[in-house]
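#lab-general

N.A. 3:47 PM
ok so I finally got the sequence cleaned up, no stray characters, all 87 residues accounted for. can someone with queue access submit it? mine expired

B.Y. 3:52 PM
send it over

N.A. 3:53 PM
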Amino acid sequence: MVNSFGDEQYCGCTGYPADSHTVLWITLSRAHPLNRCPECGSCYKMEYVGPPDDPYDHHHDHDDGHQPWVEAKNWSDYVRPEYRCGR
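B.Y. 4:20 PM
back already:
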């Protein structure tokens, strides 16, 4: 579990057991709080502990004619559901 006050947090994975691979930096965000290390399979989860709403957020959901962003598929999309990291 990784606590974060911001919308995005990086955590470094050194493997399991400890120091079994070089540090891999994993990105966690409020939109995607769960992620898995591609080297050893360790799961990491971000818990947002900051303020519930940011009064300075300028990313309002305006319809500007652009297509919505779609997350690219990766190997974890093809893993059996019972092995997934809570997605």
